[in-house]
Amino acid sequence: MSPHHYPTFALDDIANLQESAQVEFKLAGGRDGNGKLPEGMWESYSAFANTLGGEIILGVKEEQGQFTIEGIVNPMPMLSEIWTILNDPKKISHNILAPTDVQIIEIMAKKLIRIHVPSVDVKLRPIYVGTDPYSGTYFRVGDADMHASHEQVKQMSHKAEITLSQRPPNNKTSLDK
């Protein structure tokens, strides 16, 4: 399976929209209704990256367990902001997204932003929000983003260190240098 291949996520069945272990909806409407990145989106980014991966769909409203497609009036500034935040190590530990992982999609004549977050290799974990892995690491349980405990972050970091230390040695000899 190629690194950018992921299962098709059907938004066309509006009546059955629901969040899951691999799907998170955010309204992203902002106070004026013209669109604003939701703060909680980054917790979902961390959670998906540290577990099975998933889809964050911006522009979907939840009300009493029912989801409706609201859309985003002007998604372009939000796209720019997403990439700015992803590439700022003070806000996100690692940008793991390829350009094809963030898309504007249109459903029922409304624009949404779809963000495919892959599950990252254990050697990159934890992926976290902010500069402190102990306060900014999340994982996904069911349809919820859960804050990782101090011990869980230590375990992820330890597994990453073990994985890196087990890489095969460079086979170059002193003559190859």
Q: What would the keywords be for this entry?
A:
177 residues, alpha+beta, Methyltransferase, Cobalt-precorrin-4 Transmethylase, Domain 2, 4-stranded mixed beta sheet, two-stranded antiparallel ribbon, 4 helices, 23% helix, 22% strand, globular, disordered C terminus, ATPase AAA, Schlafen_AlbA_2_dom, Schlafen_AlbA_2_dom_sf
Q: What is the third-level CATH name, the topology?
A: Methyltransferase, Cobalt-precorrin-4 Transmethylase, Domain 2
CATH architecture: 2-Layer Sandwich
Give the domain tally.
Answer: 1
Classified by CATH, the class is Alpha Beta
Strand content: 15-25%
Structural class given helices, strands, pairing?
alpha+beta
Please give the number of β-strands.
8
| Helix fraction bin | 10-25%
Order of helices and strands: EHEEEHEEHEEH
Distance between the ends: 36 Å
CA-based gyration radius: 18 Å
Largest sheet: 4 strands, mixed
Strand order of the biggest β-sheet: 1-2-6-5
What is the number of helical segments per DSSP (H or I, 4+ residues)? 4
Biased composition (Basic and acidic residues): 152-161
Biased composition (Polar residues): 163-177
Domain Schlafen AlbA-2: 19-148
Region (Disordered): 152-177
